[in-house]
Design goal:
The complex is a heterodimer of chains A (295) and B (224). In chain A, a hairpin with a 5-residue loop joins β3 and β4. With 295 residues, chain A is of the alpha/beta class. Helix content of chain A is 44%, strand content 22%. The longest helix of chain A is centred in the first third of the chain and has 38 residues. With 224 residues, chain B is mainly α. Chain B has one domain: MetI-like fold (Orthogonal Bundle). In chain B, 78% of the residues lie in helices and 0% in strands. In chain B, α5 runs antiparallel to α6. Chain B is flat. Chain B starts with 13 loop residues before the first helix and ends with a helix. The chains are: A alpha/beta (295), B mainly alpha (224). Chains A and B meet through α1, β2 and α4 of A and α2, α3 and α7 of B.
Chain lengths: 295, 224
């Protein structure tokens, strides 16, 4: 019996060591792949070039399938939304069929790095950290923070507030970080979930709620008696298509496509078709980036 | 009666899509069950044998699978195999591989436990009655082991069915993912749909697992 226990302990240790080694080697392999991609060596590349995609007749595009109104599946099982509208056009202009892959926020980069999709069009915000891992094309949408407050006491400027007025934020969001850095003297009320923050605003616990501007705009249009006083707060980030690091031919072709589409005001049309129902027509200019040019 | 937003399931092909999602979940888990149960029986029997080296490796395999969260295993197979070997398994195949490895490991331990729980006097009495080793296993040990294994393996099978809810992370659109898609597509039209849709998901999981429990009860009574 004693021997068995020893054996089990030994097995456990070995399993743990093996696990660590396995993790180590996979990260090594990953960095090797990145290097290979950077050198654009044909042999070790994970991605498919533009010609390979055209030859196969179908492009794999990673989109959200449960983030209405950007990428979702309607009641007939069809993919819809702002991102999907562009994806369909992109595939059409490349002359290939589109094959949608349902992705999650957490695995978007991994999908590109392993070549399981050719393009990610899943409301992907451009950040410096992500630029190290994937290549972003020209942007097609703006995001920033927004502030929503009760319609009878609209907060139009955060500088008007004193430390007596508290602002509602969701913990761990960019809104929290931004306010702590830029308005250290304001009082924050932090909530863990969207639902709790919503309740807090409805109960009047704070004077306003700061969140992604798409979220606050949607909230104001869905709930009577609330108004977005500040639709763009702080630094503007952009949403752009992303391809595997080093996939230059595909990247160039997407950039070219976005520039060309600017001529026909394609993304304005996209907004009107997919986003007006949620955000209203008033925010079209705030949210849409046309032809890849940020104003 | 509060509004559960159940009407969203009547829109378009929503209910059919949800059932299709259940179909995918059941297909993956049942293929894995069919492969892993016999494999587990074999490995479990080997674990009670005398070969120390073999036992060591089986134990290693079991512990590796047991301490790894299933999600990590899914990522290892789906993304890891591409990074390391350049393979491109589909999400469904990756899920079947992981669930088979997991099922076989846990099953082997259940078999080992059931086998060593048979008291030594059962072997000795059989010998005293003049039964051969084969007869002892066939008529005395295996029937008792199987009876002990039924509730344990049913538990494992239902856990495998329920754990398919993780495979949405590797892009397989199964029942939970379809449910999330339906809820989110109707976010403004029926904000309460989440409750109703998840309630239906609960009922569907129940209907999928309940017959298995009934079968187990029947077998226990028949062999008990």
């Amino acid at each position: 019996m004693k021997n068995l226990k020893k054996l089990a302990a030994l097995g456990l240790t070995a399993a743990l060591t093996l696990g660590l080694v396995a993790c180590g080697s996979s990260t090594q392999a990953a960095s090797k792949n990145d290097q290979a991609a950077a050198n654009s060596t044909k042999t070790d590349q994970v991605y498919r070039t533009l010609d390979e995609i055209k030859e196969s007749g179908a492009i794999n595009i990673g989109v959200f399938s449960d983030k209405s109104p950007f990428g979702y599946v309607d009641e007939n099982g069809e993919y819809q939304g702002y991102d999907v509208y562009f994806a369909n056009r992109l595939a059409k202009d490349l002359g290939v069929k589109v094959n949608f892959v349902s992705t999650e926020a957490a695995n978007r980069i991994e999908y590109l790095q392993t070549g399981k999709v050719d393009v990610i069009l899943a409301n992907f915000t451009v950040t410096d950290e992500r630029k190290e891992e994937v290549d972003f094309a020209l942007p097609y949408m703006n995001v920033s923070l927004g502030v929503v407050s009760p319609a009878d006491k609209v907060v139009k400027n955060l500088d008007d507030l004193t430390s007596d007025d508290s602002l509602i934020v969701i913990s761990g969001t960019t809104a929290e970080t931004y306010l702590i850095e830029n308005y250290p003297n304001l009082t924050l009320q932090k909530y863990d979930t969207y639902a709790n923050a919503k309740n807090a605003l409805e109960n009047g616990n704070g004077v306003a709620w700061v969140n992604d501007n798409t979220e606050v705009l949607a909230f104001a249009s869905e709930n009577e008696g609330y108004k977005v006083g500040i639709a763009t707060l702080g630094s503007k980030d952009t949403i752009a298509p992303a391809v595997s690091k080093g996939n230059q031919t595909l990247l160039d072709s997407i950039n070219e496509e976005i520039k060309t589409l600017g001529g026909e005001q394609f993304f304005h049309k996209d907004y009107e078709e997919t986003l007006t129902a949620t955000y209203g027509a008033d925010y079209e200019e705030e949210l849409v980036v046309e032809g890849g040019v940020i104003k | 009666m509060p509004d559960l937003g159940l009407d969203v399931l009547g829109k378009g092909s929503n209910l059919l899509r949800l059932l299709g999602g259940l179909g995918i979940a059941l297909r993956i888990s049942l293929i894995a069950v069919v492969i892993s149960i016999p494999l587990g029986l074999l490995l479990g029997t080997l674990m009670t044998g005398k070969n120390v080296v073999l036992k060591f490796f089986l134990k290693l395999y079991l512990e590796f699978i047991r301490i790894m969260p299933q999600l990590v295993l899914l990522f290892l197979v789906f993304f890891g195999s591409t990074r390391v070997f350049g393979w491109q398994p589909t999400g469904e195949l990756s899920a079947i591989i992981v669930f088979t490895l997991w099922g076989a490991a846990e099953m082997s331990d259940l078999v080992r436990g059931a086998l060593i729980s048979i008291p030594v006097h059962q072997y000795e009495s059989s010998q005293a009655l003049g039964l051969t080793k084969g007869q002892t296993y066939c008529y005395v040990i295996i029937p008792q082991t199987v009876r002990r294994l039924i509730p344990l393996s049913i538990n494992l099978i239902t856990r495998m069915i329920k754990t398919t809810s993780l495979i949405l992370m590797i892009g397989v659109v199964e029942m939970i993912k379809v449910a999330q898609q339906i809820i989110e597509a109707n976010r403004t039209a029926s904000p309460n749909a989440a409750f109703g849709v998840y309630l239906v998901v609960f009922v569907l999981y129940f209907l999928a697992c309940w017959p298995i429990s009934l079968l187990a009860k029947y077998l226990e009574r028949k062999w008990g």
